[in-house]
Amino acid sequence: MELFTPWEREEKIALAISGGVDSMVLYHLLDTVYKETYDTLILLHVNHGQRAASTDEAKYIMGMAQRDGRLCETAVLDIPHGEFSQESAREARYDFFDEMMDKHGAAMLLTGHHLDDQYETILHALLTGRHLPGKMGIPARRHMPGYTIVRPMIDAGRREITSYARKHDVAYFEDETNIRTDYTRNYIRHRLMPPIRESRHLQARQLLRVQQDMDDVDDILKDRANAFLAHYEGSIDRQAFNMEKRIVRLYILKVWLAQQGEAPRRRHIDAVLDAIASDIANASFEMGETRIVISYGHVLKKQGKGEKMEMLKVDGDGAYHFNGYTITVRMDADCYPLTVRTKTEGDRMNIPGTGTKKLSRIFIDSKIPADERELLPVVVDKNRQIIALGEIYNIMDSKEKNRRLIIEKEFTNEPEK
């Protein structure tokens, strides 16, 4: 099997070795056929602490490294089972990798990603709306602060790798969670990819052409965004901004925020784009430590958190923004005005089918964090009755008239399955 080997003979490299077939085959190749291509090879193993078999797998890898005379650094992730997610595990893994790469002065970190991982990543980006902005797929190399991540097997397919393991009697471990389809990536692997491969009319390799085309589009749109921003300094003209195609506007905001070190998800930027394109006169969106402020004909970028809103008057239909929530109102004229405010001492709400309940008790029962309670919109009608509380309760929720009062949290970061 041919590997991508951008390292030099005198370099120290590290291998992220999980114990699965991919990384174990990569190690076998580095220990045999490619043994003379580097100076030193260090093994880095992470025990996620979520499976009983993980301890035995870690012991095997450490024993294998000792047998072969190689240094093996290990870590056990301290993530409570109920808080574990693919995203949290990845962040913890790379914190460990960063530390070890710096400690040992290794130039490159090798991972076992392969061609099928590439296909799955491209499909995942397309089917979850993450194809733009940004590059698609898994790059063969990626520069990190202080070192480079390299995928030596990125052009090798899973079948070729497993065939190699059988032929050379490579020991490896199966992670039983890999067969579960409640994780998005596993669903793509087990439910979508097999029919694609079986079809005479579909070619998985065409996904690589999609990746290349979209990468070119990404470059073009970045150039267009930079050209637009070159005409503006403190603020952007709202009318000129809205005259651009939506995908260009997306990139303008992406590039603009990147100047402050912010990288919000696409759905967050989409919410801002919708507000800028609407007839809303004023609105403010927090993106990390940066705020995007809509003020009549201008869009501004400000540093620091915005002040908490205490009260907002709603005199008619429209979309309103309040402490990170969007409140969309479509009601009969005699229902106005409404007041949106934060909680006050002694607030009670009449919940249909339950009775009157204190907001403080609702917060406790719904496990709302203390800091979020101070921001949650409380919607009060003209008779001073609370008719909605954030996304928790909404007595105006009705299928008639396409729901007359909708409250949605603008930016959430739920862990991805």
Automatic annotation (TrEMBL):
It catalyses: cytidine(34) in tRNA(Ile2) + L-lysine + ATP = lysidine(34) in tRNA(Ile2) + AMP + diphosphate + H(+). ATP binds at S18, G19, G20, V21, D22, S23. One of its GO terms (molecular function) is ATP binding. Keywords: ATP-binding, Cytoplasm, Ligase, Nucleotide-binding, tRNA processing. SUPFAM superfamilies: Adenine nucleotide alpha hydrolases-like, PheT/TilS domain. Residues 338-407 form the Lysidine-tRNA(Ile) synthetase C-terminal domain. Gene3D superfamilies: HUPs. The keyword Mitochondrion does not apply. It is found in: Cytoplasm. One of its GO terms (cellular component) is cytoplasm. Its EC number is 6.3.4.19. GO terms for biological process: tRNA modification. The N-terminal region contains the highly conserved SGGXDS motif, predicted to be a P-loop motif involved in ATP binding. Belongs to the tRNA(Ile)-lysidine synthase family. HAMAP family: tRNA_Ile_lys_synt. Ligates lysine onto the cytidine present at position 34 of the AUA codon-specific tRNA(Ile) that contains the anticodon CAU, in an ATP-dependent manner. Cytidine is converted to lysidine, thus changing the amino acid specificity of the tRNA from methionine to isoleucine. This is tRNA(Ile)-lysidine synthase. It comes from Salinicoccus hispanicus. The gene is tilS.
